[in-house]
Amino acid sequence: MLNDNIPRLLPLLIDMNDRKVVIFGGGQVGERKAALFSRYAPTTVISRSFTPAIQELGRQGVCLVNTGGELSDDEIALYVRDAFLVIPTTSDLELNRRIRDIAHNNGCLVNSVDGLEDLVVPSIIERGDIILAISTGGASPALSRYMRQKIEQAIGPQFEDMARLLGEIRPVLKKEVGSQAERSSILWAILEDKVVWKALAESYELAFDIALKHINNGVN
């Protein structure tokens, strides 16, 4: 048994490219979930009706399944087969519970809108290769959104350019500098160089040339 003092949720970044996501419910909550997950994974939405936005997602490649009536346990089991993640978003709490239990019995993870289950979907900030995830463990989605807005103001477009710059600098470093400790020191020097950050606002090429000087200074 896990110690109660150990955090239950572990933040992870997962490649969802080939992992099937199944969403039950075609309302506004299902719409938000489908809009998010369809960017990362093959996504299916199952419902008796769909919002116009979900219908548009269907035209863009999201699989929409119109049930036309009540779902039996066997039908739910069929829909969640081979799914990595199942998300019950219907207005029927008992149906959501059944979907959750059947999904678990089939080895699927569950993201529940009715309470904490296997995972919580964080607020996400993307800046190129930079991904920041913010969560309150499901306690306050509003606070997560507020924090995201505040952090977005601090993490400007230049951070995306810096990530690209460091990614292109690293192969040069590995070729020119043998010591791992020295390579790390040079990368930190680039990050802390205000001239490099200022140059990023003007020209990526200029910033890259300035960053290269840190390598030359380290080698010479």
Description:
This protein has 220 residues and is an alpha/beta fold. It folds into three domains: 21-121, Rossmann fold (3-Layer(aba) Sandwich), CATH 3.40.50; 122-154, Double Stranded RNA Binding Domain (2-Layer Sandwich); 157-219. It has nine helices and seven strands; from the N terminus they run E-H-E-H-E-H-E-H-E-E-E-H-H-H-H-H. The strands form two sheets. Strands 3-2-1-4-5 form a five-stranded parallel sheet, sandwiched between helices. Helix 2 (52-59) links the parallel strand 2 (43-47) and strand 3. Helix 6 runs antiparallel to helix 7, helix 6 (157-176) runs parallel beside helix 9 and helix 7 runs antiparallel to helix 9 (204-219). The chain is elongated. The mean pLDDT is 91.
Strand numbers in spatial order across the main sheet: 3-2-1-4-5
**Percentage of β-strand residues:** 5-15%
List the quaternary state of the chains.
Answer: single chain
Q: Helical element count?
A: 9
From the spread of the alpha carbons, the general shape counts as elongated
The first-level CATH class of the largest domain is given as Alpha Beta
Helix content: 40-55%
Distance between the termini: 56 Å
Pick out the low-confidence regions: none
Determine the CATH topology of the largest domain: Rossmann fold
Task: Round the Cα radius of gyration to an integer and report it.
Answer: 23 Å
Question: Mean pLDDT, nearest integer?
Answer: 91
Major sheet attributes? 5 strands, parallel
Could you state the order of secondary-structure elements as H and E?
A: EHEHEHEHEEEHHHHH
Give the full name of the CATH homologous superfamily of the largest domain: NAD(P)-binding Rossmann-like Domain
